[in-house]
Amino acid sequence: ERTLTLTGRTIRVDTRMANAGTRPIPFQWYPHPFWPVNPTGECCRFSGPVTLPGNPGYELLPDGFLRTKAAPPAGGWFVWMGTTADRPVEILQRHPLLGLVAAWTDFAPAKLPVWGNARTFSFEPYLERVVNPDTETRWSISYAL
Prior knowledge:
Layout: E1 2-7, E2 10-19, E3 25-29, E4 35-36, E5 44-46, E6 50-51, E7 58-60, E8 66-68, E9 77-83, E10 90-95, E11 99-105, E12 112-116, E13 120-123, E14 127-131, E15 135-144
Antiparallel strand pairs: 1-2, 2-15, 3-14, 4-13, 5-10, 6-9, 7-8, 9-12, 10-11, 11-15, 12-13
């Protein structure tokens, strides 16, 4: 079950998954927002600790923002960032018209990939859980524009 709520300029996406079966259901979920590429190449900054493995597409700036360092190939740049976050994460996304857009989860990301091409960029905080029989799980992500 998914519910979208708009309050002022904040969009909240609440999700509930119930297991009515007899076996556990392992699953992964992640948002895949498409943000316009910022002319400076700056993409986003995460509130939790992150690391960036060597790669040809992105670099971490001293202020913590991730920046595109080279034009992406046709398939774009995809990188698994390292994270040891043990709490929900807040992401500040650079936007060419709005300046900054804030996003936040109510879960600690198990994985944290980023992806971008010549037109769009996406951060993807992964949720990984197991839903046991006769139980449910809930999670949310919010975006403030």
